[in-house]
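Researcher: Quick test of sequence recovery. Tokens follow.
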């Protein structure tokens, strides 16, 4: 015969609707973890490329290295603002959330190579190895796009590999060609891949 005291100590079963909510939460988190960041803006990428082409022209007309460096650093800030703004716009158009796990993974994977590039910029400027900057910037930017692109659509890591190739070529080329490689990479590649992204993914 069952002990009445023991029966009273057994907790009641969890209500069915609570179990269903737990299951739905698990399914949603699993799908979110397997999803990828698709709100890369093709139009924004094209705009970044056009801005870089304009910057390459401005930088080429500077009388010395400080003006060249300032021109490209300003363009880097402009590029970040363009991509952030256009990606947010595309997310609103597609009714997606920019604060999902795939987006966080994309950003966290992109950041370390860019941070390394910033540190190397300080070191190279301090040592006077200014001719290495275009190749280093292109190579590490491409690396960041490849690592971040692991959590995005296939076009993104392909773009990163193209940047890495241009960066490697810039490191092997004469120093005088540095600004041309910056135009070809940050300008030309962004425009080409931006058009590709816009056609394949919209926006």
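Model:
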């Amino acid at each position: 015969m069952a002990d009445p005291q023991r029966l009273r100590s057994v907790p009641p079963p969890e209500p069915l609707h609570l179990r269903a909510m737990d299951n739905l939460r698990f399914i949603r988190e699993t799908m979110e973890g397997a999803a990828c960041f698709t709100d890369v803006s093709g139009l924004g990428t094209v705009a970044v490329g056009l801005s870089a082409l304009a910057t390459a022209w401005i930088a080429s007309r500077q009388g010395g290295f400080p003006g060249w460096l300032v021109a490209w650093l300003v363009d880097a800030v402009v590029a970040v603002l363009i991509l952030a703004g256009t990606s947010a716009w595309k997310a609103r158009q597609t009714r997606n959330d920019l604060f999902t796990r795939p987006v966080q993974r994309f950003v966290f994977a992109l950041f370390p190579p860019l941070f390394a590039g910033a540190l190397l910029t300080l070191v190279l400027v301090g040592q006077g190895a200014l001719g290495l900057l275009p190749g280093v910037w292109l190579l590490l930017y491409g690396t960041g796009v490849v690592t971040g692109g692991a959590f995005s659509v296939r076009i993104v890591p392909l773009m990163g590999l193209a940047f890495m190739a241009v960066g490697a070529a810039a490191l092997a080329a004469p120093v005088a060609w540095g600004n041309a490689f910056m135009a070809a990479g940050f300008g030309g590649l962004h425009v080409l891949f931006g058009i590709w992204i816009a056609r394949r993914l919209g926006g």
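Residues 23-37 have pLDDT under 50 and may be disordered.
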